[in-house]
Amino acid sequence: MSRTKxxxxxxxxxxxxxxxETGAQTIVAANANRVMLASGQxxxxxxxxxxxxxLGHNPARVSEKVAQAVSSSGFAYQYESPDGIRLAETLRxxxxxxxxVRFTNSGLEATMYAIRVARAYTxxxxxxxxxxxxxxxxxxLLYNIDASERPGRRKVDGTLAPMPGTGGxxxxxxxxxxxxxxxxxxxxxVVQAYRTDLAAIVLEPIAMNIGCVAPDPGFIESLxxxxxxxxxxxxxxxxxxxxxxxxxxxxxxxxxxxxxxxFGKAFxxxxxxxxxxxxxxxxxxxxxxxxxxxSGTNTGRRLTMIWANAAMEELxxxxxxxxxxxxxxxxxxxxxxxxxxxxxxxxxxGYGGRxxxxxxxxxRPRNMAQICEKWNRDLHYALYKDLAANxxxxxxxxxxxxxxxxxxxxxxxxxxDIEEAMSQLRAALARVS
Length: 433
Ligand code: PMP
Prior knowledge:
Blueprint: E1 18-19, E2 23-24, E3 27-31, E4 34-37, E5 42-45, H1 60-72, H2 82-94, E6 100-104, H3 107-122, E7 126-130, E8 176-179, H4 184-194, E9 198-203, H5 219-230, E10 233-237, H6 249-254, E11 260-263, E12 274-278, H7 280-283, E13 286-287, E14 292-293, H8 302-315, H9 320-341, E15 346-351, E16 354-359, H10 368-374, H11 377-390, E17 393-394, E18 407-408, H12 415-432
Parallel strand pairs: 5-17, 7-8, 7-9, 9-10, 10-11, 13-14
Antiparallel strand pairs: 1-2, 3-4, 4-5, 6-12, 11-12, 15-16, 16-18
Helix pairs in contact: 1-8, 2-8, 4-5, 9-12, 11-12
């Protein structure tokens, strides 16, 4: 038997912690928006738990409630608890489509169950997803994600050849149809062609995993209309947008309610939590009384419920989202000014503190193919590497393989942090240009 020094496969507990170019990231302590690296250096975090830590690391009131539960009332038991009812009520209060709620341990589980529920409810099997939209490492939807090597292999009917997003997946998933985002014509023709076989259309209502690409005006409305006409379920993956672009998520922002919605990340602010929610009628497919079990050893664990309830209370404080949107604007404007001053084209688009920086673009990319066409990958990587080596910013301008990962600010960042980040970016631009 071979024993390597580090028993973690690939030297990491979670593969996403191995950043491109800079390698596995080890943090030994964290508070608010500061992280301490194994080297002892302290940096300002711009990844923030992949967007989940809306209240920062160690939010005092949340930590207090978690500590209390751990020390006093039994935290790891399964079974129902009043805390679970309270959390479901909070979700329903803010998100009108969430008439019935089930909890999961991750966003991936929420999207996995969403597809099962949609198939069970409609009795149909085909599902439409959009290129570049990421729904977690869920086999059913893990095609044509941000890691596609050849985006936009377009077929004559306007759909895209499915491309597995990881190894170990079938080359040709039977019931998945992939369509370019914001392509009205392609989605119309897919719905016409398959309308009696389609269980669901699933999307990130703002494509936050490819540098924040918003839907074209009318796109989401048109999906809603076509789903209604053809008894297809509309599923919003709000894992990133939920409780980030507002308490009512993207549904509230666009004024369009889905039939099913998936939550994670900011819903819980770091707790190992996700949720699937939807209309009472559709959620009847969940057992009991329906045929789709949503359960597991850790599902709805009391500590997770307590943690998330405490986090929700903080997010509900007056002024929370005003403050977050102000930071979003400051950061977006900062990027625009800094790249303009350096004479580098960059299109900036951000929502709820998640700001996409499309270096190389002078206008809004509307889908994955347009992102890839103009993204100045070399400059983006060079800036990221330079900033990681020289400054005090952690994960700032982190790139993915084919597109930018948005920069994340949360309620614990400040105007001064943003000014400092822009000053370091200016210096990096001068060094690498
Ligand atoms: N959906 C979206 C939109 C996501 O961004 C992610 C994670 N990046 C997921 C689902 C999966 O969530 P989790 O990491 O909790 O499995």
